[in-house]
Amino acid sequence: MTAASSARQILTRLHEVMASRIHAQGKLDRVVEIIGESLDSEVCSIYLLRDHMLELFATRGLNKSAVHVTRMAIGEGLTGTIAQQVETLNLAEAKAHPDFKYRPETGEEKFHSFAGVPIVYHERAVGVLSVQHVEQRRYEDVEIEALQTTAMVLSEVIANAGLIDEHDPAALSEAQTGMQTISGLKLVKGLAAGTAVFHQPRVTIDQVMADDIEAERHRVYSAFDRMREQIEHMASQAEFRGGGEHEEVLETYKMFAYDEGWSRRINEAIDSGLTAEAAIERVQQRTRMRMREIDDPLLADRMHDLEDLSNRLLRIVAGQLGTAASQGLKRDTILIARNLGPAELLEYDRRRLKGVILEEGSLTAHVVIVARAMGIPVLGRANGLRAVVCEGDEILLDASKAVATVRPTAQIAEAFDRRFAKSRERQAAYAELRDVEPFTRCGTRIQVMMNAGLRDDMNALQLTGADGVGLFRTEFQFLVSATLPQRERQTRLYRDVMDAAGERPVIFRTVDIGGDKAVPYLRSDTSVQDENPSMGWRALRLALEREGLLKAQARALLEAAAGRTLHVMFPMVSEVWEFDAAQQVFEEQLAFLKRQKKIVPEAINYGAMLEVPALAEMLDLLLPKVGFVSIGTNDLTQFLFAADRANPKLAERYDWLSPAILRFLRRVLQTSAGYDAEIGICGEMGGRSLEALALLGIGYRRLSITPAAVGPIKELVRRVDLNEISSAMNDWLADPGCDLRANLQAWAKERGIEFD
Ligand code: PEP
Ligand code: MG
């Protein structure tokens, strides 16, 4: 007998019971008879959760007088263990199990073998279905599977009969009840409280039994087709990382999407009488269980991918395709996702989105930069997240300490509130520094500018008192737009931004698209796939080839800056000629505007970003041509270390406080001495206190940083004596064995400088 045919026999008979007019208790009594007969089992019992206890609701084979009398706590005896762990037990000798508990009123002493499966409803155990046998034997796989499928159907039967108390807190597995702590990697520091919302909502299955098996089969077939199309599409996009997925994951997706075994198992589950949704879930449950028995981290990773894909298939079948953003956030939210693209994050309502927890993520991934700019704390690399968090759970996120507390106790919530209040006080203290100019203790004025990318970010300029915008990421407008932003729209944005900045300079960076900043309407038109998008066709490389794009942007910037100074820089300049070519595009547009008798900028201050190490070797040729150089340490670091900034596996691999980077940056300054061009840093590094201290120590006087860091960095600047820190940095960088992080921390501590 196959699993499908045995389950199907049971299901067909259950169908009749369900359709009959008898009352709920009568139905359960019939159900245990049917299952017992079909599995040729002397005992079959159903326990359901009532008032926090598992109560024997129906039995064949045990003493009938025990019905509604025998009650077990969650975690008590074999039945309680199954419910607590949401796990199947299959035992040849029940008494030999350490959790076995004898209940004399049931008369079960003569039975030896025991198998039980949880009855799960909306991901929670609401009961247990068990069979027992006089003979000592382990149940066969087909029998266990039939039992599991039956339990799935039973959950629907008893839900329809109103026998499920879903809100009973005992209906939760151990990991889903009580407080849990998740730890991860601090990506954007800060505190936030809110309700858990899954970026990709989970599908809840309401109908388990199929009315028409062929129709269900058809639904699954077309869902498979759709899913394969989606995956092919993602893979064919040169910049598929926009969705947050990585190549490796995509490869695994592909492997599973075409895996015959997977589709066959789903098909078999449909044969047994389940709906498409239930069949997908059933197969997934089974895989989960198998995987749990194999303790292998590599396989666990794969399992993760299969879970994702299975969820995707479910969403396609159920027609629930949108993300939580499209459904709108209703309360203060902590968003839960495996990974996100920057554009996906920007789709959320900024007023409601309080924090993000990612299973992946790395410090300089653009989604993290965007979140930082939005002031949204992010915890990354939070393993095992999905096993612990349910949609709607209360979460306290302390990204500064790299932890999140799920379903906090009142005590923990109070302590958190106190910390939250303190942090707000600190923020208020930083706000007081708004009009204080950042002079060091030794009297040097440091330029503290901020990074921005959206119109809304400009409020931060007034709030923080930054010296201007040192990096305006113009591509954000492209990322949040479904189509290429027209020139007029660009002009309007740039003009608004300059108006908001008033007298303070704004350095516009021309579009840096590509890498992990993908836009669907601008794809590589070469037949060559970018294997490494961040080193591929992106930024200025793309802009110089798509000249229309750069021309339009140049014109928009020149028109917006009419009568003022335009500061513009080019991203990812690798060779000096690229800077020349980009400048040429601007000069041509300028000449055009002049011919048209339009008002043009008073002056244009051109700059280049130093992100590609090769450019550092050409500074003597570049510096005479530019007004400034801005070092993008996010990209520079990934190229110096050959470590992909978006790859979560490398998230902790390189350190901005490593001597290689600091020596490199120091050498750039030394080479630039004697030229007029200003040299500054605009990568994330400058916004981190220890790193900023190191940068001041090696001679940097201009930092452009995320708005939230402006206050803390100004405060730091005011406490530093440059002579002291630069001589210390010189010593440390000359000492090969030194731990720079520890030294900087100790140095700051000695001087009473505190960091968050
Ligand atoms: C950088 O690379 O450091 C930088 C500032 O640019 P982006 O992070 O936008 O690539
Ligand atoms: Mg960059």
Strand order of the largest sheet: 7-14-13-9-10-11-12-8
Mean pLDDT: 87
Percent in strands: 15-25%
Please give the radius of gyration in angstroms: 31 Å
Q: Pairing-aware structural class of the strands and helices?
A: alpha/beta
- DSSP strand tally: 22
Shape: elongated
Question: Strand count, sense and closure of the main sheet?
Answer: 8 strands, mixed
How many structural domains are formed by the residues? 4
Query: What is the CATH class name of the largest domain?
Result: Alpha Beta
Q: Which percent range fits the helix content?
A: 40-55%
Oligomer: single chain
Cofactors and ligands: phosphoenolpyruvate, magnesium ion
**Parts with pLDDT < 50 across at least 5 consecutive residues:** 238-245
| Continuous helix count | 28
Specify the CATH architecture of the largest domain: Alpha-Beta Barrel
Describe it.
It contains 28 helices and 22 strands. It is of the alpha/beta class and 756 residues long. The chain has 4 domains: 3-175, GAF domain (Beta-Lactamase, 2-Layer Sandwich); 180-201 and 324-410, Glucose Oxidase, domain 1 (3-Layer(bba) Sandwich), CATH 3.50.30; 213-318, PtsI, HPr-binding domain (Enzyme I, Chain A, domain 2, Orthogonal Bundle), CATH 1.10.274; 435-750, Phosphoenolpyruvate-binding domains (TIM Barrel). The N and C termini lie far apart (65 Å). The structure holds phosphoenolpyruvate and magnesium ion (MG).
